[in-house]
Amino acid sequence: MKLLVTGAAGFIGSAYVRMLLAAGTSRGDDVPRVTVLDNLTYAGSLDNLDLADPRLTFVRGDICDARVVDRLVGSADQIVHFAAESHVDRSIDSAEAFVRTNVTGTQTLLDAALRHGVDRFVHVSTDEVYGSVESGSSSEHDALDPNSPYAASKAASDLLALSYHRTHGLDVRVTRCCNNYGPRQFPEKIIPLFLTRLLDGGDVPLYGDGLNRRDWLHVEDHCRAVDLVRTAGAPGRVYNISGGIELSNRELTEHLLDACGADWGRVRYVPDRKGHDRRYSVDDSRVRTELGYRPRHDFTSGLDATFAWYRDNREWWEPLKRRLPA
Ligand code: NAD
After folding, report:
1. Cα(214) to centroid(ligand 1), Å
2. Catalytic residue among 130, 150, 181, 293
3. pLDDT by residue (tens digit) across 220-254?
4. Is 150 annotated as catalytic?
5. Is the pTM for the entire model greater than 0.85?
6. In this structure, is the dihedral angle defined by the CA atoms of residues 62, 63, 67 and 70, taken in order, positive or negative?
7. Tell me: the pLDDT tens digits for 59-73?
8. Of the candidates 179, 125, 192, 188, the residue with the CA atom closest to the CA atom of residue 295
9. Domains, the chain
């Protein structure tokens, strides 16, 4: 089986490929041959992949480039699509790359998938497509109501992917997951940003009143859920994925300060992000009941292990931080 994985030089896609290849080693047999397509934006790093593994092929290329996409999709049985511009703050500064990669790139992949009749197309979406949810949790039947340019571009690609199922019968499956944490997340996202700043003896910027709420899931649990959807999900179906750990940013900051042995003196309140969604929450009973999914990582120990990873792997994140504005 030949699998094309887009965006797997990034945080979640690389964890997914490592999981697939590790499972193959332990089971000794049924690991797919994996081709990664990634154009190595600021968020992608080859250090995230074991390029020496003969089962893995890396192609540097853009998902908007119809020629390279056509060639790779033509020799793939299935596609798992992670590639995206993924940082909300950047989408507020400029939405152009978000529309290009997230919408046009997804359409380019879908067209090639249709042309070549791939078996399955797993589109990795996000809980942010539902917009801010003041109370309760979004179900897969709820209308999409995205607010940030990032979320709007992901909602567009999510609906486009589903339209290829409804219109053309392409086997598309969509996942909508909450916030992920774990090793190798680019240090502009809140958890690695705060951990690396605290490790460097600096302070951390907390948006607004710090009461925006997010649901957190370890990246390895997200990857297991994506693979369950790929292997056991149903065509045209959407699967919410939750961590069940809902925290305000203040509560999250408290955990991060604890992990680093720091106190609130290191926290600096900064003006809120424009249009900052107050809360995301998804009901993931479908993926639990239909596919038997359960997260395995406990949040506190997962966060401690994430802290330990950043503490012990400065050579991974220090060069990336030099690319960020001070
Ligand atoms: P990331 O920013 O760490 O990685 C994105 C990867 O895509 C990078 O390797 C980058 O080089 C690549 N890429 C970007 N534009 C490309 C293009 N035009 N062509 C080819 N490759 C390109 O993102 P992530 O956090 O790993 O997120 C992966 C996916 O999961 C995204 O689709 C995101 O919307 C979704 N998601 C993320 C989270 C989260 O908490 N991080 C939660 C739910 C869903």
Report:
1. 19
2. 150
3. 999 999 999 999 999 999 999 999 999 999 999 99
4. yes
5. yes
6. positive
7. 999 999 999 999 999
8. 179
9. 2-185+217-243+280-296 (3.40.50.720)
